[in-house]
Each structure stands twice: as structure tokens, then as C-alpha cells.
Amino acid sequence: MIYITQLIYLKEGAEDVFEQFENIAMPIIPRYNGKLLLRIRPEASSFIEANIERPYEIHFVEFETEEDLKNFMQDDERKKFVDLKNQSIKTAILIKGTKI
């Protein structure tokens, strides 16, 4: 299994556009042997300590293989709407790992 954690930071006022993209992208994950394990929108009170900006959302996703992740990223339907992602996301930090 490949695990992806993504910290997502939005452009100001772009929440609706981001949600449009997520409504398209999230249902595609299972097509590529993936599973959304967590989708978190953390509140400021959730943080005990932070030395970086609070992300708008945190996603934790698993894919069976690296190839599955690659295929998800290259999905034609997802790519049609990547402009929504680019319009709404200021930056994202992607952390890839495996279970130990």
C-alpha cells in the first residue's frame, strides 16, 4: 500500500471552486484501487502546537500500488477539471509513505 497525506491550502475565497473539484476527484479514487481514509477540515482549536499555517483540509488516502496513484493522477476525467484545482489551491504539501 502507498499512503498519501496532503495538506491543502486554498486561495482566499476559493472554497466553492475547491469543493467543485473535490466532488469530481474524490469519486475517481476507488477506480484506481484507492480509498479516501480521512478528509479533515481542522479548526484552530484542534491544534496543540503549530509552526506552519493551518491547512484548509487534510486528506489521507491509500492506493494499492504506486502505479494506481500515477493512474489516478493521469485520469482523463480528473484532468478535464484540473483548472478548478488550480483556481482554488494556493499550495499543497504531499507526503508519501508506506505502513511500517
Task: Tell me about this structure.
There is one protein chain. The protein is an alpha+beta fold. The protein has one domain (2-97): Alpha-Beta Plaits (2-Layer Sandwich), CATH 3.30.70.100. It has 4 helices and 4 strands, in the order βαββαααβ. A 4-stranded antiparallel β-sheet has the order 2-3-1-4. α1 (15-25) runs antiparallel to α4. The longest helix is centred in the first third of the chain and has 11 residues, at 15-25. It is globular, with a radius of gyration of 14 Å.
Task: Provide the descriptors you would attach to this structure in a database record.
single chain, 100 residues, alpha+beta, Alpha-Beta Plaits, four-stranded antiparallel beta sheet
Report the count of strand segments. 4
For the biggest sheet, the summary is: 4 strands, antiparallel
pLDDT averaged residue by residue: 95
Tally the helices: what do you get? 4
The CATH topology comes to Alpha-Beta Plaits
Principal-axis shape: globular
List unreliable stretches of 5+ residues: none
Secondary structure category: alpha+beta
What is the oligomeric state here?
single chain
Under the CATH scheme, the architecture is 2-Layer Sandwich
In the residues, how many domains can be counted?
1
Overall helicity: 25-40%
Largest sheet: spatial strand order: 2-3-1-4
Radius of gyration: 14 Å
The top-level CATH class is Alpha Beta
> What portion of the residues fall into strands of 2 or more residues?
25-35%
Measured between the Cα atoms of the first and last residue, the distance is 11 Å
SSE string, helices as H and strands as E: EHEEHHHE
